[in-house]
Sequence to fold (343 residues):
Amino acid sequence: MQLVKLLGKSFPLVLWHRLRSAPFQENKGQPPASLRVPEPYRRRSARGRPPRPPHSARHVLQRPPRLLAPPRKAGPFCGDGLLPSLVAMPLVVLCGLPGSGKSRRAEELREALGAEEGGERRVFVVAEAAAAGGGRAALRAEAERLLSRRDVVVVDAGNELKSFRYELYCLSKHAGTPHCLVLCPGGAPRPDRSPLEAPDPRQRWDWPLFTAPADEAEPLPLAEIRAALFERRPPPPNQSTRSQPLQAAGFLHRLDRLTQDVLAALMAAQRGGVQPGQFVPVAVDGLRGEAQGLVLSRPVSLAELSRLRRQFLSYAKMHPGDGEENLPQLGSMFLQYLSRNLH
Fold:
């Protein structure tokens, strides 16, 4: 039933109505934090007007809205909680202008973190100079190759753009490791480099944020950095960073065949003279139960049924459940889905 409610025909309009009717008084014209879209992926039109509402449930399946989690509580790490027993090798992202001492801070982190655990912990420094030929793409690829649950990766680069810092944050989510951001003050901008977009600790890809001392002789706050890296729960993966489940070809073929048989039975019943409001029994192989069917309140075309079938298949492929064992249940849910959307 949850699947049917999620894919209901009126779900996109209800969601759009919630976004348009949310209270805007508390933040001077800004929507509440729980409904804000992340800045790098916020959709804007050419004239500055908000995008049009989604026109079908298929839009929701392919491009779900990206909603931020509720704001964290005050205090360090109170929103995520501390787990001293959880050991996961993290990602450290350095940020700053050229000449701010990022390479020296990266070496300081490598020596401090590598000396722990009896020297068994490996610390890799991904330098921007080593990936200068490939730009940000080569830097991201090298960090992704080294990132794992066993090693520490320090990205020694300017990372001026918050969109690129968000990409690194998604890498840590995909690997299931914590991450932190270290801002190196000072330095001077260059005409050939992008301007620095200052980190905002209110954004999840810039949190937790640590600022290196302006005096290079002073050490980094290593105790706080260790707590953020090794005693904090890693961010849970979401739909954009989770690997797609592998499915057997036989399961997809049987599910596709089952939904086709259901549509064929409905079209045959309409050609046989079924009137609107009558119960249409559907007897096809693969359905669980004896009295399977639905009530058609109006005549429906094959094109409309095929559109609803594609929407259901796109969601079922992303949530296969128990595979072959879940096929009869998916068949019953497909009938319920058709009943909800054929009004």
The chain has ten helices and seven strands.
